[in-house]
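ok, trying the design again with the full structure, not the truncated one.
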């Protein structure tokens, strides 16, 4: 594509208008790292000039991420508001004018995000369907058509146990064939209950789960929002990313099979990796190294040419692959590769140039006093570097030094990477989105690399979709069954005549099965009187290939649980007690809670498994429920000066008895909504806690909670009532426990969840 020449003496307004009239084509910036997955633009400019000091247009939007540009539209993830009015936004703008075309609101809930650290990530657009994918701060995974029509919405927190963290880093989904893939820290049910850095792959058109993978180790140390980088290697489609357990990992992008992992850091790693010449991978982190006390490390590793079947489900540990390392540190700023040169912004606000072949530092340039998330972008000989203090620095890199070409002051802070499309640089701040056209007399666009997709071989396994299900009593679920080869490529889209059977993995700690049966039509049926249960099924085709799915059979309301039916047959050596694993179908319960005896009764107890999970949230029923009342007996250990917290999740609101504060508190995200009622909490005393949420016809609502000493008459008045302007209309009922520094345990008993009266 070539843009016609524009006379150099044209006024800036005429120049901007002219530049912005051309359609966007092969150079669309459909994901935060651009068409090459490394922050490099395919565009080259004839007669390029400096950016103007003022933008062609701005849009009032608060963001810490990267806008993506497709088909003449700018797709932005941002937010507005400060406290109870804060709402996340998916906004689509006209790239020529900055005019808003449409916008959807995504409410935050139950997240740990603090200090308005929102929108640290980006949407992704599928080049085939032109659909937009985004995961919100609370883990709401949405898919929209380019015209604003919703395709699907999946609450990952409630349905799959996706966790949130105070740093609020989210990242971006990636597209691979017919899949859309996201990774974060998940604490699901059963064997996947322990928190771990997992990747989840969904059908990009339907939102059905296709596979999930745990390529690192459990437990993680922190979150990670590293975006996977994809390539074809050894006849397979693979993805590389860094994890919350401090590893670089390699995973089959079509099947989820983990090939290898390499530990590099004692904390979570957030920067995305880059590839070089098909044989090297470069990664960077800013924390303590796995093999030294130094903080920060840039490392280049040699990629294995052959990817063999792993010896464990988590993959093998890659050893002897390091080519070179440098003592550079970046919390989450990702590197940029241009030829044999690598450019990196560090936490100290310095821009480094590294020779990738030798690992030699060629030069460094001080751009600012500090940097956190921002990554540079490269286009036609220039690097565009947003700095946290609120300026865009344009740098011309050389062989031995770099020249600062421009510094443009922006309103707010910069924490995202820019994007470049059709001669326009887009950059976000915590106050605005800016559009800076690059003055030029013509644009040439390099052809994007052709993705090599190997042909499928012989069938080696069955891939069953959806791979995980929730079926309510009296309902059923159909499946699509396709055969895949040893590398995960689809051989047949429709496999008939499979034989289904209940399946218990040999490594399962809880030998359980789902109370459900397959009918003659291949549908999994849960009877109206089925018990609450969870388990797996195996499907075997006529040729002997097989695959598995797993599911939960859940009861409709009302629900009750007194825990007396659990057999305390597990040993807790550190405490010298017997316990039972928590109810198998509950999301996020394993290792955070257990069932044990207290004063002759079996109760649900917060564990001291690890400090990272001193807060524990468990979802006990599906996310579509609404208009229900929760009640249970609750108790905290401790003394007058030190107690813990116990509460309910009711329709995406937390109603929590705060022991040390002597309050019953309603919140969603405590930074956004927090309403308290006074209640004196005595340690080692049983109380009854009751909550409900009522939604009014106009969308407003009231969240109510009351607490009283167990055995005493229920008070008529509510202890706390929180009025909300726009109430959540549905959400999973859940249990929350917070044992500060794992010092004092909390307990729950006699749980009931009933429809509101």
């Amino acid at each position: 594509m070539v843009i016609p020449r524009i006379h150099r003496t044209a006024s800036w307004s005429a120049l901007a208008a002219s530049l912005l009239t051309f359609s966007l084509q092969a150079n669309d910036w459909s994901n935060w790292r651009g068409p090459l997955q490394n922050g490099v633009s395919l565009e080259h400019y004839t007669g390029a000039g400096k950016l103007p000091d003022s933008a062609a247009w701005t849009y009032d939007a608060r963001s810490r991420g990267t806008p993506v540009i497709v088909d003449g539209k700018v797709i932005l993830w941002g937010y507005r508001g400060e406290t109870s009015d804060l709402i996340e936004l998916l906004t689509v703008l006209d790239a020529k004018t900055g005019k808003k075309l449409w916008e959807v609101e995504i409410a935050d809930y139950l997240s740990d995000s603090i200090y308005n650290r929102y929108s640290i990530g980006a949407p992704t657009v599928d080049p085939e369907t032109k659909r937009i994918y985004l995961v919100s701060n609370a883990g709401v995974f949405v898919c929209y058509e380019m015209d604003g029509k919703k395709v699907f919405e999946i609450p990952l927190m409630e349905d799959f146990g996706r966790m949130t963290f105070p740093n609020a880093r989210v990242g971006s989904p990636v597209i691979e064939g017919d899949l859309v893939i996201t990774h974060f820290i998940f604490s699901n049910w059963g064997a996947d209950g322990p928190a771990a850095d997992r990747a989840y792959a969904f059908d990009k058109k339907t939102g059905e789960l296709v596979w999930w993978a745990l390529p690192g180790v459990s437990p993680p140390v922190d979150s990670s929002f590293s975006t996977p980088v994809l390539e074809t290697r050894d006849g397979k489609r693979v993805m590389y990313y860094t994890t919350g357990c401090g590893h670089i990992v390699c995973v089959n992008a079509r099947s989820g099979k983990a090939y290898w992992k390499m530990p590099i850091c004692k904390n979570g790693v957030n920067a995305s990796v880059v590839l070089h010449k098909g044989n090297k991978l470069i990664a960077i982190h800013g924390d303590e190294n796995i093999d030294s006390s130094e903080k920060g490390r840039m490392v280049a590793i040699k990629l294995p040419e052959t990817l063999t079947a792993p010896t464990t489900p988590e993959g093998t540990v890659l050893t002897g692959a390091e080519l070179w390392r440098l003592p550079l540190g970046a919390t989450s700023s990702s590197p940029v590769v241009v030829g044999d040169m690598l450019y990196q912004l560090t936490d100290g606000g310095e821009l480094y140039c590294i020779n990738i072949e030798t690992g030699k530092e060629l030069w460094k340039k001080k751009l600012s006093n500090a940097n956190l998330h921002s990554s540079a972008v490269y286009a036609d000989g220039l690097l565009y570097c947003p700095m946290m203090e609120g300026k865009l620095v344009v740098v011309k890199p050389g062989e031995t030094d770099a020249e600062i070409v421009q510094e443009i002051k922006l309103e707010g802070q910069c924490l995202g990477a820019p994007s470049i499309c059709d001669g326009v640089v887009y950059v976000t701040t915590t106050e605005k989105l800016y559009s800076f056209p690059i003055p030029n007399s013509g644009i040439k666009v390099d052809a994007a690399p052709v993705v090599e997709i190997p042909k499928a071989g012989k069938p080696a396994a069955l891939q069953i979709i959806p791979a995980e299900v929730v079926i309510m009593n009296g309902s059923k679920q159909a499946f699509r069954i396709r055969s895949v080869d040893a590398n995960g490529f689809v051989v047949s889209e429709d496999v008939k005549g499979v034989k289904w059977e209940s399946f218990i993995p040999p490594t399962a700690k809880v030998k359980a099965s789902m109370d459900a049966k397959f009918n003659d039509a291949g549908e999994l049926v849960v009877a109206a009187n089925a018990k609450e249960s969870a388990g797996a099924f195996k499907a075997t085709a006529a040729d002997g290939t097989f695959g598995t799915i797993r599911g939960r059979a859940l009861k409709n309301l009302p629900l009750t649980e007194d825990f007396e039916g659990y057999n305390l047959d597990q040993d807790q050596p550190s405490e010298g007690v017997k316990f039972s694993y928590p109810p198998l179908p509950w999301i996020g319960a394993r290792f955070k809670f257990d069932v044990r005896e207290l004063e002759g009764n079996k109760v649900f107890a917060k564990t001291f498994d690890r400090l990272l999970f001193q807060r524990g949230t468990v979802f006990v029923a599906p996310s579509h429920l609404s208009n229900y009342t929760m009640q249970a007996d609750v108790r905290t250990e401790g003394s007058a000066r030190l107690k813990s917290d116990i509460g309910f999740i009711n329709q995406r609101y937390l109603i929590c008895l705060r022991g040390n504060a002597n309050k019953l508190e309603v919140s969603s995200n405590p930074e956004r909504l927090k309403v308290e009622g006074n209640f004196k909490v005595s340690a080692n005393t049983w109380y009854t806690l009751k909550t409900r949420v009522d939604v009014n016809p106009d969308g407003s609502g009231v969240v109510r909670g009351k607490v009283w000493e167990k055995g005493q008459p229920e008070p008529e008045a509510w202890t706390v009532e929180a009025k909300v302007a726009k109430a959540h209309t549905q959400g999973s009922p859940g249990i929350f426990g917070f044992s500060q520094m794992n010092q004092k345990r909390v307990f729950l008993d006699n749980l009931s969840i009933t429809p509101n009266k």
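Keeping the full-length input from now on. Residues 1-24 have pLDDT under 50 and may be disordered.
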